Amino acid sequence: MTQFGDIDKLAISTVRLLAVDAVCKANSGHPGAPLGMAPAAHVLWTQMNLSSKCVDWVNRDRFVLSNGHACALLYAMLHLSGYDYSIEDLKQFRQLNSKTPGHPEFELPGVELTTGPLGQGISSAVGLAIAQKNLAATYNKPGFELSNNFTYVFAGDGCLQEGVSSEACSVAGHLQLGNLIVIYDDNHITIDGGTNLSFTEDVLKRYEAYGWETLSIADGDSNLNEISQAILKAKQCKNKPTIIKMNTTIGFGSLSQGKETVHGSPLKPDDLKQLKKKFGFDPEKSFVVPQEVYDFYNEKITERGLEECTKWGKLFSEYKKKYPELGAELQRRIDGKLPANWESKLPVYTPSDPAIATRKLSEVVLNSIWDTLPELMGTSADLTPSNLTRAKGSVDFQPPSTKLGDWSGRYIRCGVREHGMGAIINGIAAYGANFKPYGGTFLNFVSYAAGAVRVAALSGYPVIWVATHDSIGLGEDGPTHQPIETATHFRALPNIQVWRPADGNETSAAYKVSLENKHTPSIIALTRQNLPQLEGSTIEKASKGGYILQDVAKPDIILIASGSEVSLCVDAAKLLKSKNINARIVSIPDFFTFDKQSVDYRISVLPDGVPIMSVEVWATLSWHKYAHECFGIDDFGRSGKATDIYKYFGFTEQGVVERAEKVHKFYQDKKVCLCSPFKKAL
Amino acid sequence: MTQFGDIDKLAISTVRLLAVDAVCKANSGHPGAPLGMAPAAHVLWTQMNLSSKCVDWVNRDRFVLSNGHACALLYAMLHLSGYDYSIEDLKQFRQLNSKTPGHPEFELPGVELTTGPLGQGISSAVGLAIAQKNLAATYNKPGFELSNNFTYVFAGDGCLQEGVSSEACSVAGHLQLGNLIVIYDDNHITIDGGTNLSFTEDVLKRYEAYGWETLSIADGDSNLNEISQAILKAKQCKNKPTIIKMNTTIGFGSLSQGKETVHGSPLKPDDLKQLKKKFGFDPEKSFVVPQEVYDFYNEKITERGLEECTKWGKLFSEYKKKYPELGAELQRRIDGKLPANWESKLPVYTPSDPAIATRKLSEVVLNSIWDTLPELMGTSADLTPSNLTRAKGSVDFQPPSTKLGDWSGRYIRCGVREHGMGAIINGIAAYGANFKPYGGTFLNFVSYAAGAVRVAALSGYPVIWVATHDSIGLGEDGPTHQPIETATHFRALPNIQVWRPADGNETSAAYKVSLENKHTPSIIALTRQNLPQLEGSTIEKASKGGYILQDVAKPDIILIASGSEVSLCVDAAKLLKSKNINARIVSIPDFFTFDKQSVDYRISVLPDGVPIMSVEVWATLSWHKYAHECFGIDDFGRSGKATDIYKYFGFTEQGVVERAEKVHKFYQDKKVCLCSPFKKAL
């Protein structure tokens, strides 16, 4: 049983005051949760295995601050534990270009996940836990327990109300993730007031229903032993994740403690002063850290963690001698590298190959690279036979006791939980060890996970969405299921690829570029219906995100399209040729990647002097960027046979031809006015 | 205790076969759940109060098929109950332009909510139940129980896994909605296989934790008495919603019964034949309805419901005599009309009024119209003091026993549950009685509710999102909270307004148009920071969605902007004038509304021959539709003081001026080439 003494109290007061000083200096931020959770942070961090001297150690314990607005607490802990945050950085809390932004971001030292948007942290932590279990099952050997870290989460009422966490925590319970421990800051306060206003459910009972172990801490404000015991008990529960409901006083010590006002407003000067006095600090000084507190954390966290990390390093060296192949593979993954020449496994097609739905071509890719890339982990939101996301011969990731799979399995059954799945794959990617997770659903329902997708883009998590049934082409399921605005949405989101391959080579290119992109998530939109292999497509060309598929000597018009409409344009071009209108066909499988090419290249694809018409069975809004005229669908879809719907909206060879003729005629006397879309003033 | 006999068995078989015949004829659709749930549908519908002869009766019981893919069942019941669906309509299931699309849509007769996207139905049903409670509390008088209908939901495993339903059901438990009854089709099957793969939580325990009553039906396949008793028991529970876990066999009677394959694939011909034989029908005939079944449903549902509806009509007539004001108000609401001249309450501003944040201006609007529009119901996802969504003097909608409000209250505390809130306000709007719900959150987190927002647009639910903290202008909370792509997303979604008012008159216009739009939802994006009242803005002009704010004789350039950037452009224009560049300022507060204006009007706003530059601190993607050059932010935001961030991204007077000068110079010799964006070939 740990002995806690004066030094612990002093450390906790130091943490509390550093946090509120940062908030007060910024005159912005959230002092309530830091004041309430500082004791738990202190107890937890002094027993976690991590170190500022071993930031990338793959077996470090992971700490996630799901209530990310409490980050003044996190930055204080990181500073005191020797991470690369100076006192000046704390003073720059919430200031432009500082290292201490208003919510924690993934790229910062010691921050395991971007949090702030509620529910994301705890849900992605489920992914961190899954990754650890899988890594352990894949590489651990007798006498070489390389992977055994825990994942700890701080979460508040907000995170637990969010549906995404309900989804992910149900998954965690099913998967029996005993390596996941959540400390729930039960302070009975939310922004609107008391939790009695809207959040009166029995939280622990709900978590029992999910299959979690549930514990309680009655006095999270001051009873360090109680906190410590709960964490130890949680760690001992091997086959259930644990949630510890910890009673705290929000804004502990403040004159406004226990009230909703202390959640998100800096303490007033008088309040701050009385707080410092209360804790035995000089009320006139700020950002004060007694040397003994630095020494204490250095010993308890930094050096202890470094010792563990060094021991681990020796163990891993021995492991590499005894298991050279596995050891090299793990080292490669730790270094964040894909296997040499992996892309040679990607299937290549010629126009004589049969027409195949791109969702099926995606499955072929996954089957082709599955064994080469042990870092691939797949999942689907209960649409496996529709998404075709499960590689042949793969094992399901399941607790062995279920007999449905085991921890080394790389295919997760996520259930009908798109947002939870999105957060989970974010966590798997964030874990490290080069994990490359992908999640499947219908393209339209990627929107259910928009919160998680955005965090992936902001954080640079290299996740892949395998998004099938991409348009009216899905047919009878109808407008509730047919994407219209989805690609426009994600094309406008920074740092995310939105691939819509038109054939097999483009599908291979989509996976190639997506997997090579270490810091950019990807959505790959795939058809339900068969598409022909295109003349002129290659993996190399498609990897530019946009390219000339078929050219003519002097184009009278340029047809640009993505996915299923590329072949439609190819067919239309033949008809147009018979009418003496020569069309260049351009395929733009991914705006993001295309926009990264040189301006000269892009101008060569879409030059001056030729009218450009886009053709895509989605909203037209994103195409004005590249095209003078847009043929799209700015209405909801329809329920019916796919071919009937295509006809209904005019997307036939004849429909494209008619519109191309109109466009050609309209611009005939204006061609000199037509500039490449890439020749701009700004 | 109800006696069930042969006629009931015959009716159930008829329903089952009509459903599978529709699926087989379409060669598409989901036969499993219809076969499994037909008995429950039969028992429930024969005791619900509704009638095809009283389709808009405000006190009808509401039935929601949350597992919307089972709609072959719904259409069969609707046909048999005399709704406007012929046998031919059933034969046209899932065919283009039929009345029987692949998932049920709100505008169809007898369909209470659009479903298909899982989780939406059950969650919006919570809104239907809230609306009923509120209507009852508002209008019922002793001896005049005008409102007392129940809301019944069929839901499957999929809906219960979705986070949105977790959120909404937690709210329903807190609100003690005893008028809500969910029948959960516990068939242990999902698309991937058995629920043992991913959905092993204790569902009833979870619902107990939410505060629901939980019941079970062991034999939903055949024990009609058991089903009936459970429904009766559920109705008796006055202060808790009820979930009834009903054991069924998916695909009951099919050779594939109990397997995941029967979920979403038509029965094979042999299977269909054996099924018909099993049920005592001719295996060679399809779409067979014995006359006695028509007669039975006509008596048990249509005529019985009509009787209740007629009684209600008489009661309401008496009520109108005794309570003329309330009666007239309720009649007005039933007729779907707003009060005459309500818009005269909207505040009007002049440039001498102070600068105010538009979130505050929104609050002023709500306060101004709150009493005039008793149909307004507000809520916030735990951001009430930030969204400023609670009208002065309003009462919270809470169970009276909590002492926090009562059922007549019109402000709901939704908790941190954006998606659940979105579905709930959809349900409130769908209820009828002219309910006009609005939900508040930060604009960035409207994305969490994208699923529900899309259904609102598809269905035409007149909901309003009060979406504050709309940009980098929110400052220190940083990139996790600052919208970039959000407006582009929703601008590309059909049938939804995306207002971003620039001042007080524009805010009033946003509410005016949003509330007048009966079939189009609306997002109103509002600032945290103060904005000046603009010279040239009026409610009337802004109501066009886009207009010339300030003009010049011969514009050298047109600056178009929305919201906070309009005043920035106004200031920049003054500087530009001193450099002899005359700028017209155009404000586009809502693309959707602007696009509905005549093409001549729009050309008058954005004519030929003038370079058009957009200015908006969001993604540029949507502006290429209107502008030649776009000044925006195609990156994530930053954490810092709002003014520092604006400066960082160049959004200062000087920054706008520099870019405007560049644009002006670039197009000086190309003006003759510049066409109005509304002069297109297509």
TrEMBL record, chains A, B:
Cofactor note: Binds 1 Mg(2+) ion per subunit. Can also utilize other divalent metal cations, such as Ca(2+), Mn(2+) and Co(2+).
Function: Catalyzes the transfer of a two-carbon ketol group from a ketose donor to an aldose acceptor, via a covalent intermediate with the cofactor thiamine pyrophosphate.
Single GO biological process annotation from the record: pentose-phosphate shunt
PROSITE patterns attached to this UniProt entry: TRANSKETOLASE_1, TRANSKETOLASE_2
Domain Transketolase-like pyrimidine-binding: 356-533
SMART domains, per database record: Transket_pyr (SM00861)
Lineage of producing organism: Eukaryota, Fungi, Dikarya, Ascomycota, Saccharomycotina
Name by which UniProt lists this protein: Transketolase
Cofactor dependence: Mg(2+); Ca(2+); Mn(2+); Co(2+)
GO MF term list: metal ion binding; transketolase activity
Keywords assigned by UniProt, alphabetized: Calcium, Magnesium, Metal-binding, Thiamine pyrophosphate, Transferase
Key word Cell cycle present: no
Catalytic activity, as annotated: D-sedoheptulose 7-phosphate + D-glyceraldehyde 3-phosphate = aldehydo-D-ribose 5-phosphate + D-xylulose 5-phosphate
Oligomer and partners: Homodimer.
Catalytic center residues: 418
Annotated site location: Important for catalytic activity: 30, 263
Pfam families: Transket_pyr, Transketolase_C_1, Transketolase_N
GO cellular component: cytosol; nucleus
